Amino acid sequence: MRKDGTPASVSGHPVEKMFLCFETKPLVATLLALTLVMVIWNLQPYYENLISATNRCSASTSGATESLPIRSENVGAGLTPLAEKNLVKPSPPADPNKRTFQVYGNAAALFVQMGAYRGGPQTFAVVGLASKPIHVFGKPWYKCEWIPNNGNSSIKAKAYKMLPDWGYGRVYTVVVVNCTFSSNPNADNSGGKLVLYAYYGESPRKYEKFTAMEEAPGSYNESQYSPPYKYEYLYCGSSLYGNLNAIPLKLFWK
Description:
It is found in: Membrane. Keywords: Membrane, Transmembrane, Transmembrane helix. The chain crosses the membrane at residues 27-47. Helix content is 39%, strand content 22%. The chain is α+β, with helices and mostly antiparallel strands.
């Protein structure tokens, strides 16, 4: 009995071990698998945070390098408006009930030349139109200069103006500028040109300069300015009465 029982117990022991091995291995494997899954599950947010942090760091460094010159440009560009803002004061809001007139440019010309002639050995006259508001509200004046063709120095003389047709509500008025020199500027008959300086006001800085007339060499004839004269009357002004005729003017002044 004992001999039969003992081998059975001995022979059954390896089988039980095999069954126990087959029963515990899946359990251990399952536990290991669950443990790995839990570990990976818990570590996933950490890796995501780590990756996002590295991406943010790289993005911030690259953004800083790219934004540095932009900031410098912005700072450099922003300095000038600040200086301009400090210099320019904001204007008060306009009153809608107040009408203002904005002025641009010149309302009328300073001088419109119509002609020029020699009135005598030392006298010249320049006839033209001028802005009436300038003569009403300002003090324009004129200066003459003779520039000879022989290379000598120029001769200057202060001129005086005449306003023969003042009024009539026009924007322009007739102006006759008389230039009288101390001596004949073209005594040697070499020719030259008469230059007129027209000033806007009392200041000599703002003016207009133009050539009023020219005399060719040999064109001066002194006999024309001694009696008997070629013309009896000289009219300087605008044609207020239509077409001018010498006969009515002669009868009018007689």
